[in-house]
Amino acid sequence: MSVFVERITSHVGDVGGIPIQRALPNKARRVIGAWCFADHAGPATLPPERRMNVGPHPHTGLSTFSWMIEGEVLHRDSLGSEQVLRAGQVNLMTAGHGISHSEESLSDRIHLAQLWIALPDAERERAPSFQHFPELPHAALGEGWDATVLIGELAGQRSPVPSFTPLLGVDLAAAGPACATLALDARFEHGVMLLEGEVEVSPTGHDAVETVAPGTLLYVGAGCESLELRCSAASRLLLLGGEPWAQAPLLWWNFVGREPAEMQTWAEDWARADGGRFGEVQGYGGPRIPVPPVPALRKP
Hints:
Layout: E1 5-9, E2 11-15, E3 18-24, E4 35-45, E5 53-59, E6 62-70, E7 72-77, E8 82-86, E9 90-94, E10 99-105, E11 109-118, E12 129-133, E13 138-141, E14 143-151, E15 153-154, E16 157-158, E17 167-183, E18 189-196, E19 199-203, E20 210-212, E21 216-220, E22 226-231, E23 235-242, E24 250-252, E25 255-257, H1 260-272
Antiparallel strand pairs: 1-21, 2-3, 3-4, 4-11, 5-10, 6-9, 6-11, 7-8, 7-10, 9-12, 13-14, 14-17, 15-16, 17-22, 17-23, 18-21, 18-23, 19-20, 19-22, 24-25
């Protein structure tokens, strides 16, 4: 059986002063499993006046997943959480019914992945929560690859980070030439998101070898049982996977929902600034981010 493979080019932009490449959502591909948003921020070295500074803003219907590779970021949220995220750590903030938060870089050097996980129908109105994971399991794979299991399970290692749908998230780094074959869950669709270097990717069921560099996400459809990764110099990538959704969620601004009318309601809730659905972030010295006008939206 042949496996569907698709190359997706990231959008280039800026978030809070940090250069980013956004792989998801994209016109070609809205989601990979429940992964509905994928930003690669940095690597960048910025002077203090240009450090990442994202004021209080709202979220609904999702979990934000922050994986820090280099640097430090201070997270504050409307639950009263205040947590510094450091290299090798994950912050998981589950918005559910609604939450707001801010993010401030504490270091000149910054390199991180900012990911969103769409919540299934049964969980998207749950009470908000915040969790910090300072230690994650590692595995040496093949020749030269070091894997950090961010969420889900790979090579006998399971991450402590919870999820409401079957998911996989792995950081794979090589300091030099490396090669490994990864056994995959064939029920999942996957994405290979290059962060640094260049990697040759060979999915089983696909005849060609795909060379991937930063700015490209390689989508691998369900049915793939293994993936060979080969690089000739230092490289880093994220492997994302999950069970395909029958219907992709609707995403606009910082909200993940199902119907366009929900977005209008949530935008009005945030604009009222009454501490209702989204609460208030204490301790941040700047203004809230205002809600933009809600455009004409259609269900995916």
